[in-house]
Specification:
The protein is α+β, with helices and mostly antiparallel strands and 871 residues long. Helix content is 24%, strand content 24%. The chain is elongated. The chain starts with a helix and ends with a strand.
């Protein structure tokens, strides 16, 4: 949005800076993206080449040594310039000037050029000259007292106004003869002083995609006068080009006007080129530039057809079967029956509201023009543009909703500009098919803006703010009846009206108040335990990371998961971020290994990271979530059906360890992390929750088959003193696995060495955690300690033996394995397991006989597993 163009429609204060204007518009909900300016400063002036001497160089180049007249900026003290040609009276013709070296060859003596004198700043050259500042310097044996510039050096592309056409493509800028005088300011001459505001326009505010819309908002925001460029008189003397609309719901208004005798060779004036270029569009020809100019000015898309190429009446209709059209971008498009077309007797001449057809476009022979302005159904245009992957400036406005009362005035504005700039005659007739739909009135309590915002806004302020936005407002019995203006299709409910009031009053007036904390009892038991787990894990040296909860078959393949592994059953996404990760993750390891690989690749040799996050397991086939209503609260049955279809989402804890677990240094050689470290961290976490675990050997991808531990929550019947033994393989709840990853998995993730990892079901672990309080069975009597060394077959798990000892007698309080021995003193195929037993009674000190009986009971329980006392 060029600010100089905006000033034509709104009386902005003369001293208002671009930054101040942008800040006010942003506060008015037209958010600033960027302030764009050339950044050029200093003496950039017009010069006339008085003399030009070509000087071949040793490197094969030929440079031009020029004497340039820059008017009042000439420097009499600069003698280093080629001799000036003789004047008509025979004198030397020597005048004050400047000597400049130039390597371009697209100019001759007498040409007007653009010169940057010492002190000029050209940001486009900042990569080759410090700060882009031009200075006098000696080069090729002469002092170059400035620089003759090209379009690239001022940061422009394409011909600028007043330039000799095509000169910019060949080298330096050459201005049209007589367009300026030596010494004139070239910054203003070339439009380099224009400041453009790039605004972020919300999708529901198509009116702000026009100078008219932004000017109206600026006038309200700043309290200054607005001059509506749409105030155009439409003289109607009969119809213009004939039109038939077959689908009035998709096209409520269609207008045509005609211009005859137009000069197709007429150029676009400099001011027109400047404005559409500053607005981000490319100048093409006068007729096209005028069409684009009016669209940018009023926000009404329009189209100009070559009248001689139209066959019969214009019709607005849906596409027929098998129809095709080649649009202005020279792409042939196969049409869909839902497409809305503008057609003549020969077929489609445009996709309505999106783009015209190539065979009826204006060209260098067009003298008679048919101008079309119409209002189309926004969803129809939106779907059609997406269907054909064809986004245009017209579709951007039509699909958001335009002013449905503007078509006749916009068509007249286009016609008048064409005649003013290109000659010809405006046809007196205007064809208007349809009429603008009436806007519905929105009713709301007058105190609603105050209640929603917390700002003291009375009814009179609401009325004033809404009328400033051109709304029709009636206040009756503390109720506002508001009819929005036609260019605001986004105002449809009471809360839209509240927003409009607040825009005028000012969002900065809304008080910033913290809500009172709701009454409660703090964190739940599960929340407290999750926080405890996080602290314990951090204390174990793990750094928490967060990864994306998406994965796919490729990542699961790298984990080595078998085809029938349940972790391959994913909840698939309708619109995944990546085709390689189409589903929700069923394990946290892919994300952690990706993060590990990234860190190792960036030079971190020792990485120990964890993640607390959810995994997602789909419900059985057939469980499909219903689509819930949005216009009212879903029923309890609908919510229950929705909840039943949601995937199971347990929270997991996973971590990976790579590199040194204990750092090497002057006092230690260090130690690489391994399976025992992963298992120790899991035990440490479980101990912090007072959960007793059973660890047994297992095989599960992606862990190494011989270095994988299955983590099981001990069954309730294994409480010391219960007298039962239920801790055999298959009992209890399996909550996860820990160990070293398979070497193939490590290699497939571009890692080396040993990588340890663990993943546990944190929800299951927390569910097994007891609520810790005073123990009613706590004994203050002394403990008795007994050690047992048992020889047992290697295939019998140590945990199974420990469970048998724990359940052998009620007096056995705890059992701990403290040594494993395999050697000459133990038979082949066997090993020695040494256990420390703690014995205690709740109400007495144990006698020697009771201790002996408990020991013998433990030995007998172990004997049932084939264990014998080691002698």
């Amino acid at each position: 949005m060029p600010i100089s163009w905006l000033r034509q429609y709104v009386d902005l204060p003369a001293d208002l800076t671009a930054e101040a204007l942008a800040a006010r518009l942003t506060a008015f909900d037209l958010k600033l993206e960027e302030i764009v300016s050339s950044g050029i400063s200093g003496p950039l002036v017009v010069g006339r080449v008085l003399a030009l001497a070509q000087s071949p160089q040793k490197n094969g180049k030929t440079i031009n040594w020029c004497r340039v007249d820059v008017g009042e900026h000439n420097d009499p003290s600069t003698p280093d310039a080629p001799p000036a040609p003789e004047a008509a009276d025979g004198s030397s013709g020597d005048v004050p000037s400047r000597g400049i070296i130039c390597g371009a060859h697209n100019f001759v003596e007498g040409d007007l050029v653009v010169v940057s004198l010492p002190g000029t700043r050209l940001p486009a050259l900042a990569h080759v000259i410090e700060h882009g500042e031009i200075g006098a310097r000696k080069t090729y044996g002469h002092v170059s007292d400035g620089m003759i510039v090209s379009l690239a050096e001022i940061g422009r592309t394409g011909d600028s106004p007043l330039m000799v056409p095509g000169s910019g493509a060949d080298g330096i800028i050459v201005l049209e003869p007589g367009s300026a005088q030596p010494g004139d300011d070239a910054i203003g001459l070339l439009g380099l002083d224009e400041v453009v505001l790039d605004l972020e326009v919300n999708p529901d505010r198509a009116y702000a995609l026009s100078m008219r819309g932004v000017a109206r908002d600026a006038s309200i925001a700043l309290g200054v006068l607005f001059h509506d460029p749409a105030e155009v008189t439409v003289d109607v003397e009969g119809p213009s080009y004939p039109v038939r609309v077959d689908d009035p719901e998709a096209c409520p208004v269609f207008v045509t006007r005609e211009v005859t005798g137009f000069d197709p060779t007429a150029p676009s004036p400099a001011w027109l080129v400047d404005r559409i270029t500053a607005a981000g569009m490319r100048p093409i020809s006068l007729a096209v530039d005028v069409s684009n100019y009016v669209m940018l000015e009023l926000g009404q898309p329009n189209h100009a057809y070559d009248r001689a190429k139209i066959r019969g009446d214009i019709t607005v209709r849906r596409s027929g079967a098998g129809e095709k059209v080649t649009t202005l971008d020279d792409v042939e498009r196969v049409l869909d029956p839902a497409d809305l077309l503008i057609a003549d007797d020969a077929g489609p001449i445009g996709l309505a509201g999106v783009m015209g057809a190539a065979h009826v476009e204006i060209d260098g022979t067009t003298t008679d023009i048919v101008i079309e302005c119409a209002a189309f159904d926004p969803p129809t245009v939106f779907r059609m543009a997406r269907r054909h992957k064809l986004s245009s400036e017209a579709s951007r406005r039509n699909e958001r909703g335009i002013d449905v009362t503007l078509q006749a005035r916009a068509a007249t504005r286009v016609a008048e500009l064409l005649v003013e700039l290109g000659g010809g005659t405006v046809g007196r007739g205007v064809t208007i098919v349809g009429e603008a739909p009436a806007r519905a009135t929105v009713t709301l309590p007058a105190d609603l803006p105050a209640r929603i915002s917390g700002v003291d806004i009375d009814a009179a302020t609401c009325v004033e703010a809404l009328r400033a936005n051109s709304c029709t407002v009636e206040l009756t019995d503390a109720t506002l009846a508001v009819t929005p203006p036609p260019w605001r299709p986004d105002l449809t409910d009471p809360y839209d009206i509240v927003e409009e009031v607040l825009r005028v009053v000012g969002y900065d007036q809304v008080p910033s108040l913290l809500p009172p904390a709701p009454a409660g009892r703090g964190l739940t038991h599960a929340q407290q335990l999750r926080r405890r787990v996080g602290l314990v894990a951090a204390g174990a040296g793990l750094i928490e990371v967060k990864t994306f909860p998406f994965t796919g078959p490729t990542a699961l393949d790298r984990l080595g998961l078998p085809a029938d592994d349940s972790r391959r059953q994913q909840v698939l996404l309708e619109n995944p971020l990546s085709a390689e990760e189409p589903g929700m993750t069923t394990t946290l390891l892919p994300g952690l290994l990706k993060a590990l690989t990234l860190n190792v690749g960036r030079g971190h040799p020792d990485v120990q990271i964890m993640e607390l996050g959810r995994v997602f397991h789909p419900k059985p086939a057939g469980a499909e979530a219903p689509i819930l209503p949005v216009d009212h609260r879903p029923s309890a049955e609908q919510m229950a059906a929705f909840a039943a279809a949601l995937p199971d989402q347990p929270q997991h804890l996973a971590f990976v360890l790579d590199g040194q677990r204990e750092r090497s240094g002057w006092s230690t050689t260090g130690r690489t992390a391994g399976w025992s470290d992963a298992l120790a961290i899991v035990r440490r976490i479980a101990e912090s929750l007072h959960v007793d675990l059973v660890v047994r050997q297992a095989q599960r991808a992606p862990w190494h088959p011989g270095r994988c531990a299955e983590i099981v929550v001990r069954a309730a019947s294994d409480v010391p003193g219960s007298g039962t033994v239920s801790d055999v393989p298959g009992s209890g709840t399996v909550i996860g696995y820990a160990g070293e990853l398979h070497p193939r998995v490590v290699r497939d993730h571009d890692l080396t060495g040993v990588v340890a990892a663990a993943e546990i079901d944190l929800d299951a672990l927390i569910a097994a955690a007891p609520v810790v309080g005073p123990r009613p069975d706590f004994s203050a009597f002394p403990v008795a300690k007994e050690d047992l060394a048992l020889v047992v077959a290697e295939e019998v798990p140590a945990e199974t033996v420990a469970a048998a000892l724990r359940g052998a007698d009620p007096l056995i309080e705890s059992v701990r394995l403290f040594d494993v021995y395999v050697g000459d003193q133990v038979p082949e195929g066997h090993r020695s397991l040494a256990f420390a037993l703690r014995l205690r009674a709740p109400d007495r000190t144990l006698t020697d006989e009771e201790i002996k009986a408990s020991r013998e009971a433990a030995v007998s329980a172990a004997a049932r597993l084939g264990a014998t006392l080691r002698s």
